[in-house]
Design goal:
This protein is an alpha/beta fold. It folds into 3 domains: 7-51, no CATH class; 57-406, Alkaline Phosphatase, subunit A (3-Layer(aba) Sandwich), CATH 3.40.720; 410-473, 2-Layer Sandwich (Arylsulfatase, C-terminal domain). It has helices at residues 7-15, 21-30, 32-45, 82-90, 104-113, 163-169, 229-243, 267-275, 280-306, 341-344, 371-380, 395-398, 456-473, and strands at residues 58-64, 92-94, 97-98, 140-141, 152-153, 173-178, 196-198, 250-255, 312-318, 345-346, 348-351, 360-362, 366-367, 407-411, 417-423, 426-431, 436-440.
């Protein structure tokens, strides 16, 4: 009987001894309410009474391809994006969100793992030896025009831990829809923690946004002429949400092929934009953006209809800057200035019901590597620490708090411009040719006034930090 001190334990310890059963039966009945309260307290403390525990959040990640920072209606009135604008009004706008290696494959690798792509050997997108199957026999590729011939990976190694694998360990069901571009068959999403996938192959973009979408390895052969790819993927995402009947929470990763080229807009939106004065490929691009906006609205409507909108985190993100106008920001996807604000800085919106404040805007520099640890904290309900990743949880910012100050590093081996570092409002850009550029983004967001000669102390500090990072983070290539 040693240790049976509380009323609850004393009673049930005595009940173990049959000679007390009859004597104590009426005592238990009379004190049942008090006993049950203590039982519930104990079970809650042990996390055994799951019915009373807080329900885990569902997660929807909408990841867009090549959508520029300024390519949304709330930043460009020529574009019609009412659903995305509404998401911003209801959630939080991270107005200084970045991609550490802004190009297709590396951006995806960083998002999945919480790691800087350079540390995994990704410095540019994956190319393919066999364009029919996407097969690569070599682990790395070389790009003919790369000034330093830096090798870059041809697939995401299975050894890397993705957010799908980690969420799966926390009881989540992971659904993947759309573009992958992280390797050929054998390295698809279902080998990296996702329970199912749809519309996925090895390719980085379709041949046409109208069916048939791909000339080879078409994952959607059943669709006929006239069907639009973004609509097809959206319908699958909506169906997944509407028909989901598992008890476990889910994460839906809807990784769009749009708005990557070829620029082919849906005809109804294309005609509208032409009537409003847009022309050529930019009119097609604008039409693609508005179909994307429709998709965001349909996904949110599905969450509402299912009755789970208030229990679902929504993340809207882009993988790199746009190929057209980027507002007042310098650079973009093409042109040799991708590490400038127009290429590395992208839209990031988050709606976390009950946590993010409606219409809030946060100017803290954040990165795609931060998504992984953020998901881990939200899914587990506990603080997350992982020395193997470089990302930091954005949950403090989402709650209106501050994050510890840090430096963000970038690398992209395509042209002369190849590395950079951001510290607060300061940014240093480095070129293979030996040139440096230093900008105060608070005063010069367009990166027009190079302060390399007037801010010598800051230049030396950031140059030293960037050099140290390169030696540690970027694999030797010679």
């Amino acid at each position: 009987m040693h240790g049976c001190q509380s009323l609850f334990r004393k009673t049930f310890c005595k009940l173990r001894d049959t000679k007390f059963i009859h004597k104590q039966f009426y005592f238990v009945i009379e004190n049942l309410d008090h006993i049950m309260k203590q039982l519930i307290t104990i079970l809650l403390a042990l996390n055994l009474l799951t019915g009373f525990a807080e329900e885990k959040k569902n997660i929807v990640l909408l990841f867009v391809d090549d959508l520029g920072w300024a390519d949304l209606g709330f930043r460009n009135p020529a574009l019609h994006t009412p659903n995305i604008d509404q998401l911003r009004q209801e959630g939080m706008d991270f107005e200084r969100a970045y991609i550490p290696t802004p190009t297709c494959s590396p951006s995806r690798a960083s998002l999945l793992t919480g790691k800087e792509a350079a540390r995994m050997g990704f410095s540019r997108h994956i190319t393919h030896e066999d364009m029919k199957t996407g097969y690569n026999s070599k682990e790395y590729n070389l790009w003919e025009k790369d000034p330093v011939q830096r090798p870059s990976r041809n697939w995401l190694p299975h050894e890397e831990t993705t957010y799908a694998e980690s969420l799966g360990e926390l009881g989540y069901y992971n659904m993947f829809v759309g573009k992958w571009h992280l390797g050929h068959e054998g390295y698809f999403p279902v080998t990296q923690g996702f329970d199912d996938m749809y519309g996925t192959n090895f390719q980085g973009h379709p041949g046409n946004y109208f069916a048939p979408f791909f000339k080879s390895s078409n994952p959607l052969p059943e669709f006929q002429d006239g069907e639009y790819l973004t609509n097809v993927l959206t319908d699958k995402a909506v169906d997944f949400i509407s028909s989901y009947d598992k008890e476990q929470p889910f994460m839906l990763s809807l990784w769009y092929y749009t708005v990557h080229g070829p620029q082919i807009g849906r005809k109804d939106w294309l005609e509208r934009y032409k009537a409003e004065g847009l022309t050529g490929k930019y009119a097609e691009y604008a039409a693609m953006i508005s179909v994307l906006d429709e998709s965001v609205g349909k996904v949110r409507q599905a969450l509402d209809a299912k009755g789970i909108a208030d229990n679902t985190l929504i993340i809207f993100f882009s993988d790199q800057g746009g190929a057209f106008k980027n507002g007042h920001l310098r650079g973009g996807k093409k042109g040799g200035e991708t590490l400038c604000e127009g290429g590395a800085r992208v839209p990031l919106l988050m709606l976390y019901p009950g946590v993010t404040k409606a219409g809030s805007v946060n100017a803290t520099p954040v990165s795609s590597i931060d998504i992984y640890p953020t998901l881990m904290e939200i899914a587990s309900g506990e603080s997350y620490s992982n020395k193997n990743i470089q990302g930091k949880s954005l949950l403090p910012l989402m709650k209106g708090e501050e994050m510890e100050k840090r430096q963000l590093f970038f690398l992209r081996s395509y042209e002369d411009q190849y590395a950079s570092v951001i510290e607060g409002h300061w940014k240093l850009i480095k070129y293979h040719s030996g040139k440096y550029e230093l900008y105060n983004l608070k005063e010069d967001e367009s990166e027009q006034n190079n302060l390399i000669n007037s801010e010598v102390k800051k230049f030396k500090q950031l140059a030293k930090a960037l050099d140290k990072w390169e030696k540690k983070a970027v694999p030797a290539y010679k």
